[in-house]
Specification:
Mean pLDDT: 88
CATH class: Mainly Alpha
Distance between the termini: 33 Å
Number of strands: 14
Number of helices: 15
Strand content: 5-15%
CATH superfamily: Cytochrome P450
CATH topology: Cytochrome p450
Shape: globular
Structural class: alpha+beta
CATH architecture: Orthogonal Bundle
Length: 428
């Protein structure tokens, strides 16, 4: 979510290949292009019925065709066992999925290890705790901005603004970047949806230019290294040298795509679930201590991201199918997290569930480093939404619209919100 979850979306570009990562990516692409024939597709991720019901589709394929080929995604894995195997085997399943290097999510060891060690301290318990008061002040203001509107389109009015503002606050970026960053996020999603590589490259360059401008302003202002995350990254070293502007931009783009897209999507998923299940909403209102576990379960059931990518480095057999070297692998998080082989009564929300098998934040060497930050931000956001209202309800005449792959959750989410002292009677 925050930070690291960007590896699930689109292409993150660093324009100059870095060492062995660039060479290995080229080798994988040659292996891929050398394949003579592709399998017959088992499914089409862009079919209307799939886009209307992506989670139900994942559930069906997990049981009927757990390793399925499509022209769009390559080989998709839907069972928890196979997804977990890939996550823990970076030798056979590489994260170098593009000719453009993503730092560090699109790297394998040893490059990944060096960069990962450099960024992990940015999500320590001390940093997360220190950031929480500012995060709370942001949601308080956003609740005030809602006023007492009877209907709220939560994604545009609350979820996306929250995600943009907390990301800028975490990075130490000025409020003037709120609107440009929100616009950039929308354009990046559209380009990813369209698989428009030229647009994605242009957007990556645009983001890098934005970062370069922020860094230049930091230098002019003489900002100290510990002032904020961005200032600290300017002085961060990997393998004895300072990070380049391109590397900082790649790191921040990974964090930003993950933060804004998935935090907003996760808020929508949770709010929709609470609006649908008044008993759970009442429970978390009266027993706020259970809210963190409830959020984890809601997001296990209806994850804010559908897939993560890998590339095979050699021929492998998985799930009863043989996959050649250099082929694309797509890991379906939501289907794996609803696998009844691992989770008892998988389609029910259970607060007593052992969450250790939950792949919400990944697993293995690429497990999301920003998971503590994401959990805090979601807890603060949802708690503020609960504290500032007396009821969150669906609008029968205005159903939500689902997000389209590679996103998950909702594109729009109209909700009826009842505020304190607001008359309860209303029409839908």
């Amino acid at each position: 979510m925050a930070l690291g979850w960007a590896r699930y979306l689109g292409h993150t570009h660093l324009h100059i290949p870095v060492g062995e990562v660039g060479r290995r990516s080229g080798q994988i692409e040659k292996q891929w292009s050398a394949m003579n024939t592709a399998p017959q597709p088992d499914w089409n991720p862009r079919a209307d019925e799939v886009e209307r019901a992506p989670i139900a589709t994942g559930d069906h394929l997990r049981e009927q065709c757990p390793v399925a080929y499509s022209e769009l995604l390559g080989w998709s894995l839907f069972r928890h066992e196979e997804v977990t195997r890939v996550l823990h085997d970076h030798v056979r399943f590489s994260s170098v999925v593009s000719r453009h290097v993503a730092v560090p999510n699109g790297m394998d060891p040893p490059e990944h290890t060096a960069y990962r060690s450099a960024i992990e301290p940015y999500f320590s318990a001390r940093r997360v705790d220190a950031f929480e008061p500012l995060c709370q002040s942001i949601v308080v203001q956003l609740m005030q901005d809602l006023g007492h509107a009877d209907m709220v389109e939560l994604m545009a009015a609350w979820a996306l603004p929250f995600a943009v503002q907390v990301q800028c606050a975490f990075l130490g970026w000025p409020t003037a970047l709120h609107a440009p960053l929100a616009q950039w996020t929308r354009q990046n999603h559209q380009a990813t949806l369209a698989q428009d590589r030229r647009a994605l490259t242009a957007l990556a360059q645009q983001f890098e230019a934005m970062v370069a401008e922020v860094l230049q302003q930091r230098r002019q202002d003489g900002v100290a290294p510990g002032h904020d995350v961005t200032a600290s990254l300017m002085h961060e070293k990997v393998q004895g040298r300072l990070l380049t502007v391109a590397e900082i931009a790649s790191i921040l783009r990974n964090w930003t795509v993950g933060e804004i897209s998935t935090i907003a999507a996760a808020i929508g998923v949770v709010a929709h679930y609470l609006a649908q299940h008044t008993d759970v909403q009442q429970l978390v209102r009266t027993q706020p201590a259970v809210l963190p576990d409830a959020i984890e379960e809601m997001l296990r059931l209806y994850g804010p991201l559908l897939a993560n990518r890998r590339v095979t480095t050699r021929a492998v057999e998985i799930g009863g199918r043989t996959i050649g070297a250099g082929e694309r692998i797509s890991l379906n998080w939501v289907a794996a997290n609803r696998d009844g082989r691992v989770f008892t009564d998988p389609q029910s929300l259970r607060l007593d569930r052992d969450a250790s098998a939950n792949l919400l934040y990944g697993a293995g060497i690429h497990v999301c480093p920003g998971a503590p930050l994401a959990r805090m931000e979601l807890r603060v956001a949802v708690q503020a939404l609960l504290d500032g209202t007396t009821d969150i309800d669906r609008m029968a005449l205005r159903p939500p619209t689902s997000a389209v792959y590679p996103a998950s959750g909702f594109a729009t989410l109209p909700l009826h919100i009842t505020f304190p002292l607001q008359p309860v009677a209303h029409q839908r």
